[in-house]
Amino acid sequence: MTIVFYGAGAVAILSTALMITRLHAVHALLYLIVSLLAVSLVFYALGAPFIAALEVIIYAGAIMVLFVFVVMLLNLGEEAARAERALLKPSMWTGPLILAAILMAEFVYLLAASSGRSLGGAMIGPREVGASLFGPYLIGVELASMLLLGGLVGAYHLGWRPTSSRELR
Amino acid sequence: MELVPMRDGFLLAAALFALGLTGVLVRRNVIFILMSIEVMLNAAGLAFVVAGARWRQPDGQVVFLFILAMAAAEVSVGLALVLELYHQYKSLDTDAISRMKG
Amino acid sequence: MLELLWLVPAIPFAGALALAVLGSRMSHRTVTMVGVGTVAASAFISILIATVFLSARPASGMYTQTLWTWIDIGSFRPQIAFYLDALSLVMMLVVTFVSFLIHLYSAEFMRTDEGYSRFFAYMNLFVACMVTLLLADNLLLLYLGWEGVGLCSYLLIGFWYQDPVNGLAGRKAFIVTRVGDTAMAIGLFLLFHSLGTLRIQDLLHAAQGQWSAGSAYAIAAAALLLGGAVGKSAQLPLQTWLPDAMAGPTPTSALIHAATMVTAGVYLIARTHVLFELAPPVQFAVAAIGAATLLMAGFSALTQNDIKRVLAYSTVSQIGYMFLALGVGAWGAAIFHFMTHAFFKALLFLAAGIIIESLHHEHNIFRMGGLRKELPIAFWTFLIAGCSLAGLPLITAGYYSKDLILWSAGSSAAGSTGLWAAGIAGVVLTSLYTFRLIFLVFFGLVRTPVTSRPGLAMTIPVCVLAVLSIVGGFDKALFARFIARALPTLPEAVGGITETSSGLAAALAFLCGLLGAWFVYQRNPRLATAMVENPAGRVLHQFWFSDWGMDWLYDRLFVRPVVWIARVNKADVVDSIYDGLASLTTVCYRVLSLTETGKLRWYAAWIAGGTVAFVAIVMFL
To answer: Distance (Å, rounded) from C-alpha C617 to C-alpha C621?
Structure first.
């Protein structure tokens, strides 16, 4: 489990780093999917198999697919990649890297003082999660469903376009 | 079964979050910004799961579920907006869309 | 009948108010009725009160009428109350009566002026404030009247405000007297702080009880009050404003700057005489200031060529005599001289006004001449007043009052032969400049023709005053007995100068001056010009003409540094603090508005930066 954890973690970090430096949108998406799959493995190593499955199904399966659809719709091809190269100058990396480095330093400083509790002993499976969802977190479930409804309505409204039949009139 | 120290789990989440932040700040194409935001959300969720595993309770996973639902809703609306943006301005460069200036 | 006391200041005040508000809409006749009538009523009531007071005297020799409580804070409860005793009665009588005569005179003198109602409003206000000052029961009310007369003086000096020179003279008067007023205010603070009351009679009793003779408190309080008196009465070193104050109309000069306001300082010292008795060094300073001033002003009067300026310096000199009397402890003599001086000095100014008016506003005495036959009334009244001023023995009021002062200066315990000698020298000077004036103006050839003759309203007051200038001194003994009820009498003479020898010396001095003036100006007019042409003579002439260089000195010492500071501080250091705050805010606004770039990444970067900083703060603090 330890090896799984560290290996998947390394893959996740590497693929995320590669993702943010790609010029072609589809390449970046593919790297992102790899990162998500790696994180799913990490979840399994920590003893959360249900969430590992959900990560693959929903995150990598649905959300990333949405991204792919949109990238295809926008037809971001080679000329877009060339435009990206023009936009992505090396000098632009300095500021954000410094900021992220400071943030990482702070996190490391905070975490260095934490006790070394070990994880991954027990498997918290779907049974416990489900019982928790239908028990104490019931309201959260309802709220999440309302959120999704709102997202649905919003996406539909934003995506609606007058059809060609209207333009003909 | 060998166990993983909690600190390393949080460090992984922190590293992924920092990388996602860098992506948000560097890229000008709005699609890439959205992708980096997804990375950050994922990292936050990972932190929750790590915490839940430390206490051996499903609460961490439940919160990750909510984060997942929220990410889904946000991505759907966000991408619809991206499409609308492209339709209006014919460009996905966020620096060029600065009419809210001043 | 004594309850009518409050009407004496109230009626002129009401008149001033009416004239100020409605004056521009009243007819000329109505303004005259109101302006002169109020003061006439005031004079009539004071005469009534005087008769009642003298015939049915109150037991304690004084009468207090309280109107209401002015301020009521803790132990500080000054009231609007009027205090009538022999001193305030005499002064009130003189002030109201002379004011009435001068108002009557002004009705004709100012009749063609377009600020007619404004003039009478100011004059009425002045009379009201002056009477308030004289009748005040406590020092705060006295200070109110004090400031009021200062205000009216400023308003009336700058009466013809279209000419900026007049405004400047008014400002100078106000500022110089202000210096004195500030000293007096500090004196009031000191008195209240250490004695707990400002009511004059209570204050004097408390001072006598608490302070020993020569204590620091008494010296400080008396010195500060002396500062105020010096400012208002135009004595050294604050006398520079009075000659310039002649820029005002002649009735104003007669009333304010000769007969009444400038004697307010004398009244103040006489009223608080207990404090001065408790501070012998300050009392000596009073005498010294009086002696120095009377000599200085006498020399300055000798060189002037504006008729009103000669009379102004003469006023300064005569008040110096009053201060001299106060300084040696002859309180009654000072008040007696005040009374006679009010008569003959007001008369001198009114007669000079007749001359000025008749010669179509000519002020220069070297351009007048031979008016003896042209303006007989002006000549005879001016002559009578001049003789009274110089002290023509036995038949003029001025002789008796001045003689009393000289004898007191020489013979009292606090006096000395030096002071007496200064007084005699002053008599010589007075006689010299007075007869110089008379010979130049009334004798010799007519240089400027007379264009108009005075009417009845101008003739009656001068005649009445002329009579008073003669008979006013015959009641010397009666006056002394009367005033002794309010002021302490002089202890028995201790010096070597007897009354008769002093009187003889004064008469001799008068004759010297008369002969000298006659010799230089009448018999050998060329001698006068020769004396001035002489280099030493020219320097002296210039020096005395410019009031011993005091204007120049004050300009260098005070005026220039203050003006320089004002010019340097034009941008105003204090204001810049508030301006600075405003500009700081503007700068911050400009800087912050730069952050609204409209670019998404920048906003994200700021959020991230803020989060990092926040985490750092939470971690480290």
So the answer is: 6
- Secondary structure of residue C241 in the 3-state scheme: helix
Distance (Å) from the alpha carbon of B25 to chain C's nearest alpha carbon: 6
- CA B95 to chain C, closest CA, distance in angstroms equals 5
Q: Which domain holds residue A38?
A: 1-85
Which neighbouring-strand residues pair with C233?
none
Amino acid identity of residue C361, one-letter, is: H
* Residue C76, strand partner residues: C73
Domain contains C70: yes
Query: Do C504 and C583 fall within a single domain?
Result: no
Residue B95 belongs to a domain: no
Residue C237: asked if its preceding bond is cis (omega within 30°), the reply is yes
> Do C609 and A103 count as a contact with CB atoms less than 8 A apart?
no
**Neighbouring chains of C at 3+ CB pairs within 8 Å?**
A, B
Please determine, for residue A166, whether its predicted confidence score (pLDDT) is greater than 50. no
pLDDT range class, residue C496, cuts 50, 70, 90: low
> Would C119 be classed as within a structural domain?
yes
A72 close to B (CB below 8 A): no
Nearest to C251, CA basis, from C36, C44, C421, C48: C36
Per-residue pLDDT reduced to its tens digit, C386-401: 999 988 888 888 888 8
Q: Which of A85, A105, A133 is the last residue of a domain?
A: A85
Distances (CA, A) of A77 to A24, A25, A64, A74, A88: 8, 8, 18, 9, 17
Q: Kindly state whether residues A54 and A133 are assigned to the same domain.
A: no
CA distance C618 to chain A (A): 11
Range of the domain at C386: 279-533
Which chain C residues have a beta carbon less than 8 Å from that of B94? Answer: 599-601
CB pairs under 8 A between A and C: 18
Indicate the pTM of the whole model.
0.72
Range of the domain at B27: 6-89
Q: Looking at this predicted complex, what is its ipTM?
A: 0.90
Burial class (CB in 10 A: 0-12, 13-18, 19+), C600: middle
Give me the residue from A99, A106, A110 closest to C608, CB to CB: A99
Q: Assess contact for C345 and C489: CB atoms under 8 A.
A: no
* Cβ–Cβ gap A100/B21 under 8 Å: yes
Tally of domains in chain C: 3
Chain B residues touching residue C608 (CB < 8 angstroms): 21, 24-25
Number of neighbouring beta carbons within 10 Å of residue B5: 17
Instruction: Indicate the residue type of C129.
Output: C
Please give, one letter per residue, the 3-state secondary structure of C571-590.
HCHHHHHHHHHHHHHHHHHH
